[in-house]
Amino acid sequence: QVQLEQSGAEVKKPGASVKVSCKASGFTFTSYGISWVRQAPGQGLEWMGWISVYNDNTNYAQRLQGRVTLTADTSTRTAYMELRSLRSDDTAVYYCARVTETSGSGSPPYYYYYMDVWGKGTAVTVSS
Amino acid sequence: DIQMTQSPSSLSASVGDRVTITCRASQSISRYLNWYQQKPGKAPNLLIYGASSLQSGVPSRFSGSGSGTDFTLTISSLQPEDFATYYCQQSYSTPIFTFGPGTKVDIK
Fold first, then answer.
1. Under an 8 Å CB criterion, which residues of B touch A?
2. Which candidate, A36, A44, A109, B102, has a CA 20 to 30 Å from the CA of B87?
């Protein structure tokens, strides 16, 4: 069964760091990218970043650059998201999602990318 | 950066209605547009990728169209389980993705 299993809820104080895990099963981990998306209470979806599990290339949302780090451990099939210098507005549910690449028909070749498998989410609360 | 907008931000509809949600990109993104459905307390679920390709397992009452900057998600006959929030997402600038602000569909 293809799934992403995330770690449990966290409560942190302002200024602390949090590290959320996302364990993959049922598919070839190194053949996909993993994106992280967060959702503050009552708000929309915010893309945070992406990691290629194959070569560890990363890309981060500009507003989080310098505070977020994505990593992946192929031996345990687990991706991680670490967010530092936490603030109250980092309170959110954090999701990991598998990024799948599909080739379109036509020439020159082109590829569609989409998030087709999601973890259930990890609630992170930042409060003093 | 590519910005995404959606309209309306919310709508009320009845079971059986035809529902249309619009998504607009701040620049041309060809057909690199995905749609997701999210129900309260749940993770998003992929509906459409590549502007019009239906994800496996998604009911055929969902369809997507558009290219360039303007896109549409249509639900041909709204069902009770379709009341949710819908998000568009551009993948033109992969690996950087951007979501739209969402459209909430609720019961009239």
1. 1, 31-32, 34, 36, 38, 43-46, 49-50, 53, 55, 87, 89, 91, 94-102
2. A109
Maximum pairwise Cα distance, chain A: 56
- Contact partners, residue A13, CB within 8 Å, separation at least 6: A86, A126, A127, A128
How many CA atoms does the CB half-sphere of B26 hold within 13 Å?
9
Contact criterion met (CB < 8 Å) for A112 and B49: yes
pLDDT, mean of residues B76-96: 95
Give the pairing type, strands B85-90 and A3-6.
unpaired
Mean confidence (pLDDT) of chain B: 96
Q: Residue B59 corresponds to which tokens in the numbers above?
A: 């009911």
Dump pLDDT digits (tens) for B15-27. 999 999 999 999 9
Mean pLDDT of chain A: 96
Q: How far is A15 from chain B (nearest CA, A)?
A: 27
SS3 B80: helix
Chain B residues touching residue A52 (CB < 8 angstroms): 95
Task: Test A45 with B43 for CB contact under 8 angstroms.
Answer: no
**Tens of pLDDT along A90-106?**
999 999 999 999 887 77
Q: Where are the alpha helices (DSSP H) in chain B?
A: none
- Contact assessment for residue A40 and residue A89, using Cβ atoms and an 8 Å cutoff: yes
- With contacts defined as CB-CB under 8 Å, which chain B residues touch A120? 43
Sheet strand arrangement including A18-25: A3-6, A18-25, A78-83, A68-73
